[in-house]
Design goal:
single chain; 342 residues; alpha+beta; OB fold (Dihydrolipoamide Acetyltransferase, E2P); 5-stranded mixed sheet
Length: 342
């Protein structure tokens, strides 16, 4: 065959093929552009949880802070952190030299006035002194006794004692250090019985009840689900912060430690077998679904709404393909392509 004769034919029909390919590409492009891809998921069955969020601190159920009642100097620290102590045990001492001297002086005065009261009583019985003189002697003795008792209490307060059985959870201060009534030198409590003290917004308090399940998250234990239970709700709130203190009991084997900060979610409502879709799919009370290759706007009734998933009570089924992120420009009846979300 004459190649020179064939070449013009190849060139002629090759151009037609190229033009056809270009047209096909443009048509496909326009069709795809006219049918935007939308990510879809099928509703799933699972637990739906509505919870009240708060932050809190891990504390012993029974504990106390011990510190001076007046400015003084530390003279002795008799226990250390981790020591087991009994109620009434002396934990530390403050400088009591001045207080002891004061007690000794007042004790001597009280003894003298006690004898004077006794003497005036005998004289009054013999009508050798007036009632007024006798009553003054009684009054002077009573005042001296009150002063002595007050001084003895001041002296006693310079010995820091444990108000309950427990363990020294923390100890601050050194011998020789001057401390004030704002100082806390010892924390004593029971480390095996813990709870979380959380501050809950006053608007949420009517929904909180003793016994409700609580989901607890601590940064020290990432990915670990901790469960507690509402143990107490304080009857009086903080009018400044507008919160109420809620205490969440922890199991005996809890890994959290005293002083750790936590996030708590108090479960106020729960559905075990709820129909769930991502919260991003809901737009103004509607879900968008793909049916027959077209986007359809469906009004739905919702139930529990969580941070990531929400419960659908009516409007869609598990077989529907729900658009996860409906575009703002999406129109009812518009042709779309489903893009399955893994």
């Amino acid at each position: 065959m004459n190649l020179e004769a064939v070449t013009p034919l190849i060139r002629k029909y090759g151009l037609y093929a190229l033009a056809g390919a270009v047209v096909l590409f443009l048509v496909t492009f326009l069709l795809l552009r006219a049918r935007p891809a939308v990510p879809v998921v099928n509703p799933v069955r699972g637990p739906a949880v509505e919870a009240v969020y708060a932050t809190g601190t891990v504390e012993p159920v029974r504990w106390a802070k011990i510190g001076p009642k007046a400015t003084s100097r530390i003279t002795a620290m008799l226990v250390k952190e981790g020591d087991v102590v009994k109620r009434g045990q002396v934990l530390g001492r403050l400088d009591d030299r001045e207080a002891r001297a004061n007690v000794a002086s007042l004790a001597a005065r009280e003894e003298f006035l006690r004898d004077e009261e006794k003497r005036f009583k005998e004289l009054f019985a013999k009508r050798l002194v007036s009632r007024q003189q006798y009553e003054r002697a009684v009054s002077d003795h009573e005042q001296a006794l009150e002063s002595l008792n007050a001084a003895r209490q001041v002296l006693a307060d310079l010995s820091l004692v444990a108000p309950l059985d427990g363990t020294v959870l923390r100890q601050d201060g050194q011998v020789g250090e001057v401390v004030t009534n704002a100082s806390v030198l010892f924390w004593v409590g029971e480390p095996d019985k813990l709870w979380v003290a959380a501050d809950v917004d006053e608007e949420d308090i009517p929904r909180i009840q003793v016994g409700q399940r609580v989901l607890i998250k601590a940064d020290a234990f990432p990915g670990q689900a901790l469960v507690g239970e509402v143990a107490e709700i304080t009857p009086k709130g903080d009018p400044v912060q507008k919160t109420y203190r809620v205490r969440v009991g922890l199991p005996a084997d809890t890994p959290v430690k005293i002083g750790m900060t936590t996030e708590v979610n108090i479960v106020v409502r729960e559905e075990r077998n709820a129909l769930l879709v991502p919260v991003t799919a809901l737009v103004d009370g509607h879900l968008w679904v793909v049916r027959g290759g077209k986007a359809r706007k469906i009004k739905v009734q919702t139930g529990i709404i969580g941070s990531q998933m929400l419960q659908v009570l009516s409007g869609v089924t598990e077989d529907d393909e729900v658009i996860v992120y409906p575009p703002a420009t999406l129109k009812d009846g518009k042709s779309v392509r489903e893009l399955a979300v893994p």
